């Protein structure tokens, strides 16, 4: 189908397009991705219409959004039905009906335009704009290593194992946006005119000048944000979830699980986070569960073993800024096991 004559309002009242925006129908998603591919001149217009759908999903409830769209569709259907049985006496009424529908769409578009250019862009919309063409990889780590990265504005990032950090191509010009897969600690250089935003598949964390840790591994079902200094706003990047934003003060954290209806806010142990920053592991006659939990916390990898054998494992010792391989080799030597690694998962072998 040729959508050349479609405007933003036409896209918005198209059920297939709405399904594409909210990723509720695979066939519709494939259809509109194909439209973008085969009709590249429509890409900008489709992107703007999709942003509008996402904004609607964030600012109003799903029921309210659906009711508004249904009302608009009914008004258009009534106007179209009347147009099939036009009589001379009904021309004036039909004309007014058309004016009413057009006016509603015009006001809707004007409100959207004002909102778009005067309000901060939501985390969900920012994440929807992330593409390989607009972001590039700054640093990537394997399961065994960490990296300390300095961004162009002076922001310092400690990137944990099995993690990837991408940066917007216009970083430090018009914006300061990065995309994280995995886990990292950020010491953000203060800039009141350009908020620093960390985007993940689950969360968007916005700050001016502060320090915080973000965790969002693709293999885990939860994401978290821990705040050390300053203040941050944490949003969900799932546009149709209607999850309330959270403001954190130092010592607070939020977690978001797959399928959850909201963030869970709590306090965290600052010493534990400092140990993470320093790469410090302390074990005192630790059993397997304690060892696996601390390794997951420091290195972001999951350690598994046959449950029948884990009762044999005990370890006492301390590691300061050591690689995961060095830690596992030492614990394995004492407990007579080796291990296999695949991506961010470790399998203990006796």
From TrEMBL:
Positions of the FecR protein domain: 139-233
Keyword Transmembrane helix: yes
UniProt keyword annotation of Transmembrane helix present: yes
Spans traversing the lipid bilayer: 95-115
Domain of life: Bacteria
Classification via Pfam families: FecR, FecR_C
Keyword tags: Membrane, Transmembrane, Transmembrane helix
Name listed for the protein in its UniProt record: FecR family protein
Every Protein FecR C-terminal domain range: 280-348
């Amino acid at each position: 189908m040729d959508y050349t004559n479609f405007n933003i309002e036409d896209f918005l009242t198209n059920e297939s397009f709405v399904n594409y925006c909210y990723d509720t129908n695979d066939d519709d998603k494939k259809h509109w991705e194909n439209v973008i591919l085969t009709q590249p001149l429509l890409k900008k217009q489709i992107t703007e219409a999709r942003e509008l759908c996402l904004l609607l999903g964030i600012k109003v409830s799903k029921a309210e959004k659906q009711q508004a769209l249904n009302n608009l569709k009914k008004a258009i259907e009534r106007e179209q039905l009347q147009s099939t049985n036009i009589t001379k006496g009904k021309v004036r009424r039909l004309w007014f009906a058309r004016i009413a529908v057009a006016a509603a769409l015009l006001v809707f578009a004007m409100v959207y335009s004002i909102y778009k250019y005067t309000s901060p862009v939501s985390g969900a919309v920012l994440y929807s704009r992330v593409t390989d063409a607009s972001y590039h990889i700054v640093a990537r780590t394997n399961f065994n290593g960490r990296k300390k990265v300095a961004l162009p504005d002076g922001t310092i990032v400690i990137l944990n194992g099995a993690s990837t950090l991408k940066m917007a191509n216009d970083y430090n010009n018009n914006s300061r946006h990065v995309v994280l897969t995995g886990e990292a600690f950020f010491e953000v250089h203060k800039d009141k005119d350009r908020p620093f935003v960390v985007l993940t598949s689950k969360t968007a964390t916005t700050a001016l000048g502060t320090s915080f840790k973000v965790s969002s591994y693709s293999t885990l079902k939860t994401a978290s944000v821990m705040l050390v200094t300053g203040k941050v706003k944490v949003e969900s990047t799932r546009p149709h979830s209607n999850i309330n934003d959270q403001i954190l003060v130092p010592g607070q954290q939020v977690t978001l699980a797959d399928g959850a209806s909201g963030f869970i806010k709590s306090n965290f142990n600052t010493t534990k986070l400092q140990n993470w920053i320093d790469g410090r592991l302390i074990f005192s006659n630790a059993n397997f569960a304690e060892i696996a939990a601390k390794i997951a916390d420091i290195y972001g990898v999951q350690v598994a073993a046959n449950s029948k054998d884990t009762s044999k494992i005990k370890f006492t010792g301390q590691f300061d800024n050591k690689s995961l391989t060095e830690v596992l080799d030492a614990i394995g030597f004492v407990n007579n096991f080796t291990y296999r690694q695949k991506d961010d998962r470790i399998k203990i072998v006796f």
